[in-house]
């Protein structure tokens, strides 16, 4: 295996910091990765046929080949093939598949929108790069493909492609349940781009391309509020909608950030054709309606590797080779410094990723076989984009995650409550089949397993009821989320803090799985993970291949030994390659699959195995037993499992094969420790329960009750602090000074929470000798987070403190003297007499604000109409910003959900106030007067010289808000 100097330094431990890469190195890295990937690409070459294979579109490797043949400094040692031979293979393949395409008169492939047109785009681009080397007939075929596909796609209008089976964009409406319009509409657009770029505007081509492209990220509430034109057509004419009325993208029946990137993946494929043809880009590629709102949701799930985290889809995880192109497009064509940071992070990891077995591949951890040639093609396009457009200068990683920080509740049906903080990502997932409390400290793409159906912390059962709170800094003074989830048999609570810390109230033990790989050059993936707790330290080595369990136990006399299952593999049940104790001995089992008899586990052949019958795969107590022939001393058993490895089992012995005694159990914890656990120096857990935290292999089990997860902190000190004392049905945490409260009961709770220290929270508290007694009023099945607005140092017991907000607190119960310190560092000496005293910190803000509009999404967003500034300035809580409407400008604020509307207040800058009206809507489509609305619109008759709107405030009608 060939590795470069940087990889060697990582592998030898001489370089252990997170990988980094300069702007100038990105293009060179892509070229080197393509060279190394050529070794895999050549496995697709069919020597008998004299061309690359059709299977899984293997012939799409020609685009990467074309880049290597026409650019850069070719290195045959890295590529594993001489340049002339690669050229011969490539040209022969282009000749064959150009002729065999349906649009050129062939029968082998092509024309079908899903997914032939994706590979046609790569194929046409490869041919154009090698145009001078192609014969006239092949050129004519390539031209026929581009023209014919544009004609065919246009002829479909807004209907389905009859050749593509069930794949559909659902016309121009979108919102097709179980899938997303974004990718499907993108496919229609990319089917037209090669024809437009290389052959001009055929009949209806450009109109169809624009129509599909403009609607990809469509959402009526946003589109109808936007009179801007793109390619001469108003955005308000768009008709498409997302499921759930948000910018979350759903695919494969769940939230898939990989598919949210499709907007720029297809844009990258399309743009490179126009750029190489020397043509200006269609405006829609640089001014995609709602593109920036969609990008915001990507940033809300971004990892440190430039790869979005995938909490609800696991068949698209760690697709490093494919997820380069959306970032490259945004960095180069859109000149986005945030995308440039993400791209640099991903590019810096590509060589390490590629060197990991199976070596040279770019889509090795998940996905379909066609993703490998696709990843090669899209890496080649990313190289070309960097060649054709200078990239943006990336922001620092710290600035990236500071700017990306946000809390979003996407709603009960999407089932995602998410928090991106500067220190970590976390999300409470309640979508059926995906239930979990996912957490990724330090945004580490390879620390905890959180994708797809992988369980984490929460029970994987269905959520019956979901109550959530989303705290936002602009409105509440801090970012946080809290949720209280009802299951059929109990409750669970989750909370996220601005520090990256998480808090959960677990109804039963929670599970966390840890990535443990040896991937030289990737931070944390050194081939082992070290766990430290009060009971000691253990290092768990990465498992290589199939699992082998070696169990020892006190010696016993027995003739019969068996493995009896307790918990099977969730899909495949139980299957053993080797039950070493019984080699050559009579072997029986509870069941077996034909060809996988029990004797296959004791025949000494490592390639044969026993497997339970297919009908028995879900049975927990399947067994396999050996007869040793005579009474024998037994003190060790070694089991070699296939993929169908038992999650839990017992080893039992017997003298007669009828009465059995347990002598060993699996799993046995590698570490069992009370109170706290450090995970490889990267994260840690603190549990209030008296039960143990256990580590078994790469799985952590945390006890029921309050569990806190920290990115980095002094875990022993935190664990030594006494937990809050709560009324029955209430769980509480003071992690990082924030008071997190969960009512895990069906009844409203009033009472007192006893806290240590002198932090003061919104509400009423009375000081004690050791802290405060906080007056609690918490509705049934709810949760919330309170910020520590003040600390009272030197305050005696018996003082009542009523914190009104983040600026003002009233004390009573003096006389006394003490020092009051605000959370933001403002300090004030307090002299309290017998009378009440209200103290105000003038420099502080009076959080939380009741304004429903603060920090909400506003429209129009992207693209802004001429003369109009961003309407978000009217709801950002800043006094020095304002929205300039532009001529007859109109703005809409999305309150996130229907709310009972009380007072709406508008504050303008100096100057004549323009004529204006305020309207309301439930659906973002129809506006008028209303008492309950989700959308609030301000329509103006603004002209130059009129005032701008400094703030739009919306207050809820008391007593009419959502319960």
Structural class per helix/strand content?
alpha+beta
Number of strands: 48
- Give start-end ranges of low-pLDDT stretches: 1-17
Rg estimate, integer Å:
31 Å
The strands making up the biggest β-sheet line up spatially as 11-12-13-14-30-27-26-16-17
Sheet with the most strands, sense and barrel status: 9 strands, antiparallel
User: Strand portion, in percent?
Assistant: 25-35%
Estimate percent helicity.
10-25%
Distance between the termini: 62 Å
Principal-axes shape call? flat
Mean of pLDDT: 94
What is the number of helices? 20
What does this molecule look like?
It is a single chain. Helix content is 23%, strand content 29%. By secondary structure, it is α+β, with helices and mostly antiparallel strands. Strands 11-12-13-14-30-27-26-16-17 form a nine-stranded antiparallel β-sheet. Strands 18, 19, 20, 21, 22, 23 and 24 form a seven-stranded antiparallel β-sheet that branches. Strands 33-36-35-39-40-43 form a six-stranded antiparallel β-sheet, with no helix packed on it. A hairpin with a 2-residue loop joins strand 28 (692-696) and strand 29 (699-702). Helix 2 packs across helix 3 (62-70). It is flat, with a radius of gyration of 31 Å. Residues 1-17 have low confidence and may be disordered.
């Amino acid at each position: 295996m060939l590795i470069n100097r940087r990889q060697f330094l990582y592998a030898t431990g001489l370089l252990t910091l997170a990988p980094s890469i300069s702007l100038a190195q990105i293009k060179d890295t892509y070229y080197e990765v393509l060279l190394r990937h050529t070794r895999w690409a050549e496995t697709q070459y069919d020597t008998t046929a004299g061309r690359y294979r059709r299977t899984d579109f293997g012939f799409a490797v020609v685009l990467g080949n074309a880049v290597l043949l026409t650019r850069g400094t070719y290195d045959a040692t890295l590529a594993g093939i001489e340049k002339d031979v690669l050229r011969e293979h490539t040209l022969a393949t282009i000749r064959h598949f150009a002729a065999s395409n349906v649009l050129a008169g062939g029968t082998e492939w092509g024309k079908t929108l899903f997914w032939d047109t994706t590979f046609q785009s790569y194929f046409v681009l490869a041919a154009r790069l090698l145009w001078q080397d192609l014969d006239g007939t092949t050129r004519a075929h390539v031209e026929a493909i581009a023209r014919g596909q544009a004609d065919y796609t246009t002829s479909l209008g807004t209907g389905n492609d009859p050749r593509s089976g069930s794949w559909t964009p659902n016309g121009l409406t979108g919102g097709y349940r179980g899938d997303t319009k974004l990718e499907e509409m993108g496919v229609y657009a990319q089917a037209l781009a090669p024809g437009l770029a290389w052959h001009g505007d055929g009949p209806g081509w450009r109109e169809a391309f624009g129509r599909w492209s403009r609607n990809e990220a469509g959402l009526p509430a946003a589109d109808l509020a936007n009179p801007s034109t793109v390619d001469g057509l108003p955005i308000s004419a768009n008709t498409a909608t997302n499921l759930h009325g948000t910018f979350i993208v759903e695919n494969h029946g769940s939230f898939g950030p990989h598919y949210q990137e499709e907007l720029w993946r297809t844009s990258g494929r399309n743009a490179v054709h126009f750029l190489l043809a020397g043509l200006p880009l269609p405006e829609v590629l640089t001014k995609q309606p709602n593109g920036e709102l969609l990008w915001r949701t990507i940033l809300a799930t971004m990892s440190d590797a430039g790869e979005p985290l995938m909490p609800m889809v696991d068949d698209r995880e760690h697709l490093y080779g494919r997820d380069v192109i959306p970032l490259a497009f945004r960095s180069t064509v859109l000149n986005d410094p945030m995308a440039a940071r993400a791209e640099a992070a991903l590019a810096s990891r590509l060589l390490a990723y590629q060197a990991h077995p199976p070596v040279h591949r770019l889509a090795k951890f998940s996905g379909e076989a066609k993703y490998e040639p696709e990843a090669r093609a899209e890496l080649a396009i990313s190289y070309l984009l960097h060649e054709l457009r200078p990239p943006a200068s990336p922001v620092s990683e710290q600035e990236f995650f500071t700017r990306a920080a946000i809390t979003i509740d996407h709603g009960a049906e999407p089932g995602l409550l998410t928090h991106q903080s500067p220190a970590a990502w976390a999300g409470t997932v309640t979508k059926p089949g995906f239930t979990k409390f996912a957490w990724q400290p330090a945004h580490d793409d390879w620390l905890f397993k959180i994708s797809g159906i992988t369980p984490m912390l929460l029970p994987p059962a269905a959520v019956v009821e979901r109550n959530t709170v989303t705290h936002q800094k602009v409105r509440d003074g801090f970012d946080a989320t809290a949720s209280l989830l009802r299951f059929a048999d109990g409750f669970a609570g989750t909370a996220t803090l601005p520090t990256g810390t998480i808090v959960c109230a677990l109804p039963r033990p929670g599970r966390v799985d840890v990535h443990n790989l040896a991937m030289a050059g990737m931070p944390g993936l050194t081939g082992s993970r070290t766990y430290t707790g009060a009971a000691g330290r253990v290092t768990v080595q990465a498992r290589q291949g199939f699992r082998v369990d070696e169990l020892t136990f006190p010696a016993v006399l027995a003739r019969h030994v068996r493995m009896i299952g307790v918990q099977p593999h969730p899909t495949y049940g139980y299957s053993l390659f080797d039950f070493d104790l019984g080699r050559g001995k009579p072997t029986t089992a509870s069941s077996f699959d034909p060809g996988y008899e029990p004797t296959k586990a004791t025949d000494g052949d490592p390639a044969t195995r026993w497997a339970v019958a297919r009908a028995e795969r879900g049975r927990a107590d399947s067994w396999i037993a050996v007869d040793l022939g005579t009474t024998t001393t037994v003190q060790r058993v070694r089991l070699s499992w296939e993929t169908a490895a038992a999650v839990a089992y017992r080893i039992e012995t017997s003298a007669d094969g009828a009465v059995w005694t347990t002598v060993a159990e699996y799993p046995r914890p590698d570490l069992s420790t009370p109170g706290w656990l450090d995970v490889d120096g990267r994260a840690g857990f603190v549990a209030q329960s008296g039960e143990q935290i256990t580590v078994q292999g790469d799985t952590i089990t945390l006890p029921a009750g309050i569990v806190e997860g920290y990115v980095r902190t002094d875990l022993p000190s935190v664990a030594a602090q006494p937990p809050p004392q709560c009324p029955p049905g209430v769980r509480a945490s003071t992690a990082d000074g924030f008071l997190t409260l969960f009512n895990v009961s069906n009844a409203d709770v009033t009472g007192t929470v006893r806290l240590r220290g002198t932090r003061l929270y919104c509400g009423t508290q009375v000081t004690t000798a050791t802290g405060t007694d906080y007056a609690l009023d918490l509705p049934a099945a709810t949760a919330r987070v309170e910020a520590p607005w003040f600390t009272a140092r030197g305050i005696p017991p018996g003082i009542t403190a009523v914190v009104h907000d983040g600026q003002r607190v009233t004390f009573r119960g003096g006389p006394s003297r003490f020092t009051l310190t605000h959370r933001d560092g403002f300090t004030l000496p307090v002299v309290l007499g017998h009378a009440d005293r209200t103290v105000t910190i003038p420099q502080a803000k009076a959080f939380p604000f009741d304004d429903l509009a603060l920090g909400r999404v506003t429209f129009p967003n992207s693209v802004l109409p001429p003369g109009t500034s961003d309407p978000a300035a009217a709801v950002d809580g800043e006094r020095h910003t304002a929205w300039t409407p532009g001529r007859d400008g109109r703005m809409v604020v999305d309150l996130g959900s229907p709310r009972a509307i009380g007072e709406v207040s508008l504050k303008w800058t100096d100057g004549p106030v323009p004529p204006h009206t305020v309207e309301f809507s439930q659906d973002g489509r129809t506006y008028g007067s209303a008492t309950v609305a989700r959308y609030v619109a301000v329509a103006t008759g603004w002209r130059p010289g009129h005032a701008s709107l400094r703030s739009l405030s919306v207050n809820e009608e008391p007593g009419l808000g959502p319960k």
